[in-house]
From TrEMBL:
The gene is gatA. Keywords: ATP-binding, Ligase, Nucleotide-binding, Protein biosynthesis, Transferase. This is Glutamyl-tRNA(Gln) amidotransferase subunit A. It comes from Pseudodesulfovibrio mercurii. Its EC number is 6.3.5.7. The lineage of its organism: Bacteria, Pseudomonadati, Thermodesulfobacteriota, Desulfovibrionia, Desulfovibrionales. GO terms for biological process: translation. The keyword ATP-binding applies.
Length: 485
């Protein structure tokens, strides 16, 4: 097998534009790579081989198009982004046979830019989880060590990119679901500012938290995908009409002089594995060598973030998931005779345990007697948490810390849901505050030999600065080779 799959998205896009490789050749290569690695990794719920090859032939026949920045580039989508005519399961039995009749806006924009979709990626059911163990269909393995989880909920997207099955994938992030799998799989993952990318066609989990974002093998690749997807969409009223800067133009900076990096003590202390701390600390030291200065900052409410997040996310989920009732979408129990029994049976059989747990808890925190005690209080803490970030960003340009307290854990290790929720301690605050955050691979952990991700967070709409700092740092870090499979 040639080494085409080890190229970055930006490299393959350039080769395709120059006519040095044909789209069919690249797509066939990816499909062969999928066939060779899927038995071990299991990243994909649906492989779109025939559609992709047909599209590739049509693109080759028309010839390269410089106005299309992703012309001919094979990509994978998390299976909760609607794809016209292609099954979209959300990792759930209840949507096992759901075939949408429209593309999500982010998907349509990538397609318009010339991307070729080759698969839909596995995920925790309805994006609820941090390990992809909650998929209704199968678990995905971490390409670096198949005994371990790839992270979640966009674990299929993380694994497919790390395994070289495609050149980039989309994930979604409600409380860390892009950053955690990116950290665990050793790739770059960006959760943009809430409202930066349209959520139209993203099957909702927590609507005030969800964002779509790129998962790639380089910072430049992430910038390229963000460039294509960002911007207002009349179909999503929460997408913001803020000018989209030139993300690529900001890359290639010489140094990090004048950049102030905030280090929150709450992210660097107790509960953080020594090997993660060491790898992240070393990366920060590299930033300092490039001229950045570090400043201590306080995010004092971090200890309440998990409770706050899980109240809000579950409340929103219970309301969003009420549309899956066996009537309008997906799976229906055919034996029930009364309507109410049909609802109950369809939802009981269609949803997995974690999803049911969250619907029940979410309904509880929204119920009239408890609304003020839980949901309202969480909304207030969320506001305070946002203010903490505002204050911190008066002292620094970006915040740096770990993405997760540990590297990828062994499958089955976090069977207790609470233990799993605790993995999100460093990622959920960015969603509560609506700010952008990314994971950058900074090396392998000393003990586990698994990838470690450094998290960068910035003020709303600071993606350009964040990507430019990350790209500068990326150039001084030793590159991770692709895992052996
Ligand atoms: N692990 C978090 C949860 O289960 C985040 C998931 C996500 O970002 N979709 O809710």
């Amino acid at each position: 097998m040639s080494e085409l799959h080890t190229k970055t998205l930006s490299e393959i896009a350039a080769l395709l534009q120059a006519g040095d490789v044909k789209v069919v050749e690249v797509v066939e290569h990816c499909l062969a790579r999928i066939e060779a690695t899927e038995p071990k990794v299991r990243a994909l719920i649906t492989v779109m081989g025939d559609e992709a090859l047909k599209q590739a032939e049509a693109l080759d026949a028309a010839g390269p198009d410089p106005s299309k920045p992703l012309w001919g580039v094979p990509m994978v989508l998390k299976d909760l982004l609607t794809t016209k005519g292609v099954r979209t399961t959300c990792g759930s039995r209840i949507l096992e046979n759901f075939v949408p009749f429209y593309d999500a806006t982010a998907v349509a924009r990538l397609k318009e830019a010339g991307a070729v979709f080759i698969g839909k990626a596995n995920m925790d059911e309805f994006a609820m989880g941090s390990s992809t163990e909650n998929s209704a269909f199968f678990m995905t393995a971490n390409p670096w060590d198949v005994e371990r989880v790839p992270g979640g909920s966009s674990g299929g997207s993380g694994a497919t990119v790390a395994a070289g099955q495609c050149f980039g994938a989309l994930g979604t992030d409600t409380g860390g679901s892009i950053r955690t799998p990116s950290s665990f799989c050793g790739i770059v993952g960006l959760k943009p500012t809430y409202g930066r990318i349209s959520r139209f066609g993203l099957i909702a989990y927590g609507s005030s938290l969800d964002q779509i974002g790129p998962m790639t093998r380089s910072v430049e690749d992430a910038a390229r995908l963000l460039q294509v997807m960002a911007g207002h969409d009349p179909k999503d009223s929460t997408s913001v009409d803020v000018e989209v800067p030139d993300y690529l133009a900001a890359l290639g900076r010489e140094d990090l002089k004048g950049v102030r990096i905030g280090l929150p003590e709450e992210y660097w202390g107790e509960g953080l594995d020594a090997e993660v701390k060491e790898a992240c600390r070393a990366a920060v030291a590299e930033m300092e060598k490039l001229g950045a200065v570090t400043v201590p900052v306080k995010l004092a409410l971090t200890e309440y973030a998990i409770a706050t997040y899980y109240i809000i996310a579950m409340a929103e989920a219970s309301s969003n998931l009420s549309r899956f009732d066996g009537v309008r979408f997906g799976y229906r129990n055919k034996k029930a005779e009364e309507l109410i029994d049909m609802y109950t049976a369809s939802r009981t059989e269609g949803f997995g345990d974690e999803v049911q747990r969250r619907i029940i808890m979410g309904t509880y925190v929204l119920s009239s007697g408890y609304y003020d005690a839980y949901y309202n209080k969480a909304a207030k803490v969320r506001r305070l948490l946002r203010q903490d970030f505002d204050k911190a960003f008066e002292q620094c340009d970006l915040i740096a810390g770990p993405v997760c307290p540990t590297t990828a854990f062994v499958t089955g290790d976090k069977a207790d849901p609470l233990q799993m929720y605790l993995m999100d301690i460093f990622t959920i605050s960015a969603n509560l505050a609506g700010i952008p955050a990314m994971s950058l691979p900074v090396g392998l952990g000393r003990d586990s030999h698994m990838p470690v991700g450094l998290q960068l967070m910035g003020p709303a709409f600071s993606e350009q600065a964040m990507l430019s700092v990350a790209e500068r740092l990326e150039r001084v870090l030793p590159p991770l080779s692709m895992p052996e499979l």
